Amino acid sequence: MSRNRADSVDSLEPDDEVVPYSDDETDDELEQVSEAEEPEVPAVVEVRPSEGPWKVRANDRDFCNLPEFQKPVFLCFKKSKYSGNSIKMYKYNAITFLPFNLFEQFKRAANLYFLALLILQIIPQISTLPWYTTLVPLVLVLGITAIKDLVDDLARHRMDKEINNRKCDVLLNGRFQEAKWMDIHVGDVVRLKKNDFIPADILLLSTSNPNSLCYVETAELDGETNLKFKMGLRMTDERLQEEQQLAHFDAMIECEEPNNRLDKFVGVMKWNSDEFSLDLNNMLLRGCKVRNTDLAHGLVIFAGADTKIMRNGGKTRFKRTKIDELMNYMVYTIFVLLILVSCGLAIGHTYWYENTGRHAWYLSDGKQEETASYRGFLSFWGYIIVLNTMVPISLYVSVEIIRLGQSKFINWDLQMYYPEKDTPAKARTTTLNEQLGQIEYIFSDKTGTLTQNIMAFKKCTIGDTIYGGDTSADGVPLDTSQPVDLSWNKYADGRFQYYDHSLISRIRSKSDPDVLEFFKLLCLCHTVMVEQKEDNDDLVYQAASPDEGALVTAARNFGFVFLSRTQDTVTVSEMGVERTYKMLALLDFNSDRKRMSIILKSPEGKIRLYCKGADTVVYERLHPSSKYMEGTQSALEVFANETLRTLCLCYKDITEEEFDSWSSKHKAVSVSMTNREVALDEVYELIERNLQLIGATAIEDKLQDGVPETIAKLANANIKIWVLTGDKKGKYSSLNIGYSCQLLTDDMHIHYGEDVNKMLEARQIHRRNNTPATGRPVKIKEPFFTEQGKNALIITGGWLNEILYEKKKKRRRLRLRKLKKTSSQNGQPLDEKEKEMRQIDFVDMACECSAVICCRVTPKQKANVVSLVKKYKKAVTLSIGDGANDVNMIKTADIGVGISGQEGMQAVMSSDYAFAQFRYLQRLLLVHGRWSYIRMCKFLRYFFYKNFAFTLVHFWYSFFSGYSSQVAYEDWFITLYNVCYSSLPVLLVGLLDQDVSDSLSIRFPRLYLPGPQGVLFNYKNFFISLFHGIFTSLIIFFIPYGAFKQTMGQDGEAPSDYQSFAVVTASSLIIIVNLQISLNTSYWTFVNFFAVLGSIALYFGIMFDIHSAGIHVIFTSGFTFTGVASNALRQPYLWLTIILTVGISLLPVICIQFLHKTIWPSEGDKIQRNRKKYEKEVEEVKKPAPFQRGRRSRRSAYAFSHSRGYADLIASGRSIRRKPARRTVQDSIQEVWQAGNS
Fold first, then answer.
1. Quick check: 226 pLDDT over 60?
2. Which pTM value belongs to this model?
3. Of 58, 171, 626, 970, whose CB count within 10 A is highest?
């Protein structure tokens, strides 16, 4: 399935094996490009620090404070450009909290509106309501929100404090002293111990291991748990072992400025009149963990915000939900309606006063000198105050309470609790819950997020026999899985599980020499290093990749145990017999060779080459008469269809003469100073010929539990999943993972970067040829693919840069200038507008596909892809990852999810939600997200409705009160309406309502669709609520008005006064709005019943109290409706009026709801109708069969994904442990590894 790459017209085609970092190119690299007009081969550039490099002097803190390193901060104030080592993830401190928090809160239109309203109410001439009716709710809203923000920020403070207060040994005043991380400075010498986290970006000076070798775990950076090694310089290793030597260390380091490049470091150390080059292999990066190294000494180069892990964090963005933004626009709409209504009523008051009010002596208020226009002006502001409840201030308090409750439900969900690591789900924000129900795109990391980063030896083929099924010792298939007994092997790992008893039988009986040779190859042909634990003599393998570690571990469990190695020997135990082989040559893996070999001399003197590699390269080098070729090829097809990572094993016997001839050539090119790697590959080709095939291995890259099922559920919910990984294992590994997690299917057409580039260039050339006279490029609406939904993209970081033309500005200018000189028909953008159109084309193309996988991408590229989809598709996005390289992506997306419970916590610290396993994502979205969205939409629709119904009664009343800004209700009813009388039922709906259960929500993912479509809350729903409120307010006002027009009570008096009318309308309103929420409630509990009935009872209880004579005596001016309630509500006629008003108001709603659920039922209505039937059904739980990928293609993913091993390290002898001894320059081992990098 190999493809020819697309040729790029003006530049070299991207390298799929390289992670691009063009966003941080140095000026020297850019100058090199500008000098070469049309480079045909990549120029070998020695990258030097640019002018004005980052300078660090060892053991000299004052050096960083010199005037030349000061940078302006504000006006004439300056500070050192070197950051301290404390980190600050929090938003506020004690001084900035109040002003900054109030500033953020007053960004909300409603808060600003109520502040203006409060100012108006202070003015006596226009105030129609007491000022405290607005002040108290406003302070309550601001206070509750501020407390919530404070609690969130205090959690960030605690996390920062925990990290900043970690301890580390720092060299101060000539001796090591324990200090906090926050007190470490650039230039300090620090001492690290085994299992310590690295506090800053540190230059490794020396370690307790031979030759200053240091192992680090980078899980916090990239989620990978396999160990990497770092090495100190030979000079520092020899001279900086003791505390006194370190105290006198005064070297000057000149290096690159702080940047986000995790793959590169360039610097020079000047010490004792000598200069030593520095690279990334000499650096320990913050966030990594020291492993298998007792002590390590280092010099702090970058601290705090300057470290690479922090530079990759991206900007902290203030995230708001779509509903928040929509609410703001609706507040603006209500405000416009409020102004228009107030203007109309003010004009009405002007005409009424001119024609009626001025001439009615009984309406005199002693202000006859005021003109009608002036009175109309005052009436306008009066109605602004009276009708202000159309924008309910309590809305925002209620929203915050609902969000807080929903966050707690996520935290308390036991089905998202991971018991193995005691990790519950955690909602780290309380403002984004309903956004979880509107996700359209998910951007996921691969390693540690979809996979466990654990490789397991699953199957193998030896000769023509496939092993790995559930079989007995005789090869008979078993119905039940029974692990093989490995108790006969004292080196066996108890965690290793294998179920093929026939393979163990053949190994122990030694009846098949091919089987023995197969596992002998696995325990000999590798670059794994071994360490023996002191407490139990257990063997610990350190491999360059988890794949290689899995193969050596498998051989160990089958009786072929790798015990130790020296610079030129390998010692193994073959079925209990210890044998030492002499290593004559080690031909390491690289991305071009896709194989590795080792040449050994056995104790009997026989020379043999063992080789393992990709089937595509191994089969080309097999002897024509090699056995098992067809059988192995068939087995490889089977393994590839199961998405296992395959690797072919072969060998070759070599004569002494043949080896001597080859060895002389090998030694000659080993010391070559030009094109050494190319020459070595050519020499390797000479010996790796005419190989004999033994078989092949099949390794499983273990997915996390439930990943395929989760992806399938989310896909059924119409959520598109893109995988963005910086994994060095490349696109073929990502391809296999895509198939195994069912993101890719066998019927999909897969398009690679070269295909995408060609299609985009063709589209761009077509657009240029059809550009109208205006010169503005026009978007072409034709789809890229004729068959929608059956396509997938797999793009590497290099091709992504080529496709999106994401280069540094300086390089872009140089390239554009060159393009304009040459040709405008090569498909490359000529200006920023064309670049934007190219990005839009790419996003359109990717969104036409069912799956997108971007591999070998940088953290910045991950964030760029997310931002492009947000920008051009206006879609709600979610990013999920577990490492520091995912932080930028997590912060960029609308929702960021961190995988917790692993070693790395950087992603969790920057996330909005955190849990331990990817599979919990389906519950977070399909249950909590969906419920939160439905609840919030229902809450908002009802809240707007009940406030329109309440407020617009004033509007109808104004026609009968001379437009005089008089209120239709009692003042205390207006104050308590949203706080006491109608708040609890709708609050409980927002917290507890659910249309279907959680199990049905997951079982039917299509129920999620209304969220991304935004159909439950939009301007259409807003205007429905508005017109519903207008209708209800009409009924509430005019039915009592008609009833009061000609009425006689039981006592012969007419209860048609204003106060009785206010009581009847208020009572009708309270009953209607509480029964209305009952009609909208899907999930009834005792609490809901209590809330509805309790709210109505509370209204009548409070009303009778505030209408009592006793309270009037105490507060005469505040309570003026004395005895009104008891007098009015004892009239049966008025109770009949209330019942009639309630019935006419609710009957149309009941009819409409019935018709909708009967004639036009939604998906949720259909499932809800059969809810009991579905809940009684018991779904059969079947063990899913291994995914069969189909037989269109096969790819040996292991060899394409394997990183370069430890061959150079082994050959140099630097990895071999020895007893500590005083080392001199003469005794040190020759630095082959450094020579290879010079």
1. yes
2. 0.80
3. 58
Gap between the Cα atoms of 629 and 624, Å rounded: 10
pLDDT band at 534 (very low <50, low <70, confident <90, very high): low
Does 1178 or 680 have the greater pLDDT score?
680
Residues of the chain with pLDDT > 90, as a percent, come to: 27
CA distances from 377 to 694, 847, 878, 956 (A): 97, 55, 51, 20
Q: Name the token pair of 673.
A: 């100073």
| β-sheet bridge partners, residue 571 | 564, 580
Three state DSSP letters for 1136-1152: HHHHHHHHHHHHHHHHH
Helix (H) or strand (E) holding 117: helix 109-122
Q: What is the DSSP letter of 106?
A: T
d(C-alpha 397, C-alpha 391), whole Å: 13
Q: How far apart are CA 857 and CA 800, in angstroms?
A: 8
Banded pLDDT at 8 (limits 50, 70, 90): very low
Among residues 445, 547, 727, 894, which one is catalytic? 445
**Do the Cβ atoms of 1222 and 238 come closer than 8 Å?**
no
Where residue 273 falls (left for φ over 0; alpha for ψ -120 to 50; beta otherwise) is left
Give, as one character, the DSSP assignment of residue 361: G
Are 248 and 271 spatial neighbours (Cβ–Cβ below 8 Å)?
Answer: no
Known catalytic residue at 1051: no
pLDDT over 60 (residue 19): no
SS3 state at 651: strand
Burial of 68 (0-12, 13-18, 19+ CB in 10 A): exposed
Partners of 192 in beta bridges: 296
Q: Which two tokens stand for residue 717?
A: 């919910």
Closest CA to 612 of 683, 670, 698, 543: 698
Contacts of 872 (CB under 8 A, 6+ apart): 839, 840, 843, 844
pLDDT tens sequence across 273-297: 888 888 888 899 998 889 878 899 9
Q: For residue 382, what are the contacts with CB-CB under 8 A and spacing of at least 6?
A: 126, 127, 128, 965
The CA-atom distances, in angstroms, between 79 and each of 54, 92, 528, 1110, 1157 are 16, 21, 48, 69, 68
- By the 8 A CB rule, do 431 and 401 touch? no
**Side-chain-side CA neighbours of residue 873 (13 Å):** 24
pLDDT tens readout for residues 676-702: 778 888 888 889 888 999 999 998 888
Q: How many CA atoms lie within 13 A of 430 on its CB side?
A: 25
| Distance from the Cα of residue 779 to its chain's centroid | 31
Q: Higher pLDDT residue, 872 or 1236?
A: 872
Angle, alpha carbons 746-751-756 (nearest 5°): 165
Beta bridge partners of 540: 531
Strands in 377-469 per DSSP E? 426-427, 441-444, 451-462, 465-467
1009 pLDDT tier (thresholds 50, 70, 90):
very high
Predicted local distance difference test score (pLDDT) of residue 937: 94
The highest-confidence range among 354-358, 715-719, 820-824, by mean pLDDT, is: 715-719
DSSP assignment of 131-184 equals: THHHHHHHHHHHHHHHHHHHHHHHHHHHHHHHHHT-EEEEEETTEEEEEEGGG-
Interval 1179-1237: pLDDT, tens: 444 444 444 544 444 445 544 445 566 666 666 665 555 444 434 333 333 333 333 33
Which amino acid is present at 193? K
> What is residue 1228's three-state secondary structure?
coil
Name every residue whose Cβ is closer than 8 Å to that of residue 1077 and which is 6 or more positions away in sequence.
942, 946, 985, 986, 989, 1092
Output Rg (C-alpha) for the chain, integer angstroms: 38
Q: How far apart are CA 604 and CA 385, in angstroms?
A: 102
* 510 in Cβ contact with 575 (< 8 Å): yes
